[in-house]
Design a protein that fits this description.
The protein is an alpha+beta fold. Helix content is 40%, strand content 21%.
Length: 479
């Protein structure tokens, strides 16, 4: 029997506001001592009142529009009740039936790693709502330690429709979602710091069937690799059950054990009734006008997919476009060079191939890369013929090593390109005398034979001769 895989995601993204969701505590607890960035409000002390962070709501509205969602003119908060050690209040302030936004869409690309070919796909967004995060548990042997610094951190929960059909598609979707949230300015989405996490639901059904069967939910996946591996593993397990006639009869929740690359049963999946949702009594409903929503979203940047389409239309590969979209520092340098020399492929080569390569070679970070202004100076020097392309690579490496400008390096080391016609003519004539066999071969029809003479001239000038001009003079002399 042939099966179809059905996948939906719930994505939790921490928001990059200065303070937490409902209190004035610092929202950046990374690297700080445990339980030092807390207050009575985010610790859920009796008698405290939560006050919604305006910046959270505004950033969430911007993200909603970037995801093509409809921002609902009226929404409200609900209490979601569950009792975990990392949830100090015993409930989470979230949104349930009346979320901030709904009915969105993301278009993304799925790349086959074997062929490097991409196919377009899309996934509907069911809803986007905002809520406060819980703390963090660290398990050591038979003991668990709780750090409440993260408690109260503002989250966007983005829930998809079950539109994804493979583990690779889920990973590609999550990657594109991360780009959009960063572009909207609402989240750093730093995976290393746990700022973006996934709950993935997966089920199978016979090919051609339209029914949705009981799903398995995989909790708290914190990387694209873990997301893809966990879904791939669970898909294989489900196929085995179906083939043995033991398909799931109820929904269950599992956890991913990264070291062992397998899932482990946690519990039966909770239903909405288990959480006993009811309207948050301490926070009034959120009411927005269309004018207010428009004022927050009028300056939204282009979507990453739109930027990639522009770059590939310039002749760049999908991989090059992705690098530029994913790393604004690289895009800034590329744009500056391309604006100056009007050559996207050469601009990409300077930034993505040469500069990135030399940074890695010399164990330097992108923060230590030459600024856009000096890279433009270098690109123009090559375009004008002040230095050759090969010398340009040498100068760029020295720029990265020393931090000096290209003009200073060219002057100090005498790297300027030799383009004096009289000198090049003299060298060409001397090269012809020293390479008579090359001329004979050329006259016999082997046009590449002249490369020996061009190479000799380049060697005499230590690579600083204008190779194009050398070839031009050579052809005139032997004509």
């Amino acid at each position: 029997m042939e099966f179809e895989t059905i996948i939906g995601l719930e994505v939790h993204a921490q928001m990059n506001t200065k303070t937490k969701m409902f209190c004035g505590c610092d929202n950046d607890a990374w690297g700080k001592e445990p339980n030092t960035v807390v207050c009575p409000v985010c610790m859920g002390h009796p008698g405290t009142l939560p006050v919604p962070n305006r910046a959270v709501i505004e950033k969430a509205i911007r993200s909603s529009r970037a995801l093509k969602c409809t921002v609902n003119e009226r929404s409200h908060f609900d209490r979601k009740n569950y009792f975990y050690p990392d949830l100090p209040a015993g409930y989470q302030i979230s949104q349930y039936k009346f979320p901030l936004a709904s009915n969105g869409m993301i278009k993304f690309s799925i790349t086959d790693p074997k062929t490097n070919k991409s196919e377009s796909a899309e996934c509907r967004i069911l809803r986007l709502h905002i809520e406060n995060d819980a703390g963090k548990l660290t398990h050591r042997g038979n003991h668990s330690l709780c750090d409440y610094n993260r408690a109260g951190t503002p989250l966007m929960e983005i829930v998809t429709e079950p539109d994804l059909r493979s583990a690779r598609a889920a990973s590609a979707f999550a990657d594109e979602l991360r780009r959009i949230l960063i572009a909207a300015g609402s989240s750093e989405a730093d995976m290393f710091k746990g700022m973006m996490r996934f709950d993935a639901s997966i089920s199978l059904r016979p090919k051609g069937d339209t029914k949705l069967y009981p799903r398995i939910e995989i909790k708290n996946l914190n990387s694209f690799k873990a997301l893809e591996k966990a879904l791939t593993y669970q898909e294989k397990q489900l196929k085995k059950l179906w083939e043995e006639g033991k398909q799931p009869t109820g929904e269950t929740t599992v956890g991913w054990i990264d070291d062992e690359e397998r899932t482990q049963l946690l519990r039966d999946k909770e239903s909405a009734a288990d959480y006993r949702y009811f309207p948050e009594p301490d926070i009034p409903p959120l009411v927005f006008t269309q004018e207010y929503i428009a004022s927050l979203t009028s300056d939204l940047a282009k979507l990453p997919s739109e930027c990639k389409a522009e770059l590939t239309a310039m002749g760049l590969t999908e991989a090059e476009a992705t690098m530029l979209v994913d790393q604004p520092a690289l895009r800034e340098r590329f744009d500056a060079i391309n604006a100056a020399i009007k050559d996207a492929k050469r601009s990409s080569s300077i930034v993505l191939t040469q500069m990135v390569g030399f940074l890695k070679q010399h164990d330097k970070t992108l923060n230590e890369a030459p600024p856009a202004t000096t890279l433009v100076e270098l690109a123009l020097a090559m375009q004008k013929g002040t230095i050759s392309t090969n010398t340009g690579k040498e100068v760029l490496e020295k720029m990265i090593q020393s931090g000096k400008s290209p003009s200073a390096i060219i002057k100090e080391e005498g790297l300027g390109q030799v383009s004096d016609d009289a000198l090049l003519q003299k060298l060409v004539e001397e090269g012809i005398k020293l390479n008579p066999k090359a001329i004979e071969s050329f006259k016999a029809g082997k046009t590449q034979a002249l490369g020996a003479i061009v190479g000799w001239v380049m060697k005499q000038t230590k690579g600083q001769a204008d190779a194009g001009k050398v070839q031009e003079i050579l052809r005139k002399v032997i004509a």
